[in-house]
Amino acid sequence: MNGMDIVKVDAHYLGGYFEKDPNAWFPGLWDFMHDKLAVRSVLDVGCGTGRALAYFKKIGCNVLGVDGSVCAKRDSLIPEFQVVHDFTQGAFLPSQTYDAVWSCEFVEHVEASYLDNILKTFSHSDKYIVMTHAQPGQMGYHHVNCRSALYWIMHLYRVGFKIDFHLTKEARRIAGHGYFKNGGLVFIKQRNTARLIPVSFYISALWHQCVWYMEYIGNFYKAQGFTETIKKLYARLLRISFLCCQK
């Protein structure tokens, strides 16, 4: 568990939360969002115990966090800036828009049938969506919607947000570890995005997805060696095949 606390759960269909998760701690990235992207207000979707929320508030942002867990709010660092909302019951619709939506370790824990609820909430960003996602076959507690980057790129495009490949690469470099290094994405709001996705954009997104995955495998190879890399690729293929065969 990399020194993390035991996952806490108060409803079987929620993703649970850690009080302290080193793989979700990115102060350098949050500073970058504030200083370089001029983010002054943040909606944290799937905020857990509010660690990111508290940091954004500390550096001067107007903040609001939303999470499905009653216990997470109870344990929150700033519960007065956090609300409980169940995304299986509908979208969370705040009374204002925010410069950025931050969402870490959240989307993979919500069934695909409720995707529209997430997208409607994400749409309350006025500038950026900065998020993580779990790769297909990635193990974890209540991982029910593990998808490639391409899946999120296409769905967010349709609701007015375009992936920024340069910012994504820079954000992953700054994060340097954990969930964001391997599955972080940065989107920018488009004012007049067509619902029909251009073929050129689809090809570009697919290419970057392949590049990111090859970089991940390359780093794993350097750390673990050839044999372990082959084992990991084989296990991933088996897992994906199993998921594809399910109804």
Outline the structure in words:
With 247 residues, the chain is α/β, with parallel strands linked by helices. The chain has one domain: Vaccinia Virus protein VP39 (Rossmann fold, 3-Layer(aba) Sandwich), CATH 3.40.50. It contains 9 helices and 7 strands. A 7-stranded mixed sheet has the order 3-2-1-4-5-7-6, sandwiched between helices. Strand 1, helix 2 and strand 2 form a beta-alpha-beta unit. Helix 5 packs antiparallel against helix 8 and helix 8 crosses helix 9. The longest helix is centred in the C-terminal third of the chain and has 26 residues.
Main sheet specs:
7 strands, mixed
The percentage helix is 40-55%
State which percent range the strand residues make up.
5-15%
Can you tell me the overall shape? globular
Mean pLDDT: 87
Number of strands: 7
What keywords describe this structure?
globular; 247 residues; 9 helices; single chain; alpha/beta; Rossmann fold; seven-stranded mixed sheet
